[in-house]
Design a protein that fits this description.
Structural class: mainly alpha
Number of strands: 0
Strand content: under 5%
Oligomer: single chain
Number of domains: 1
Shape: elongated
Keywords: Membrane, Transmembrane, Transmembrane helix
Helix content: over 70%
Distance between the termini: 10 Å
Order of helices and strands: HHH
């Protein structure tokens, strides 16, 4: 469980990259994909910083 928490931020950033790739490939007009990926990147960076300081192995 600690391993998953330590890598949760990285997984969120990877999910944001996948959302951006889907947006780029399919040429969607909606900006919701960009908003979701932005929120995932911000939350992923914050989670990575917070969980790596708090979780001890």
């Amino acid at each position: 469980m600690k391993y998953l928490l330590k890598n949760l931020g990285i997984l969120m950033i990877i999910a944001a990259v996948v959302v951006l790739a889907i947006y780029a490939v399919n040429n969607y007009i909606d900006n919701i994909y960009l908003i979701v990926s932005l929120l995932l990147i911000i939350a992923g960076i914050a989670a990575h910083i917070i969980f790596n300081k708090k979780v001890e192995e």
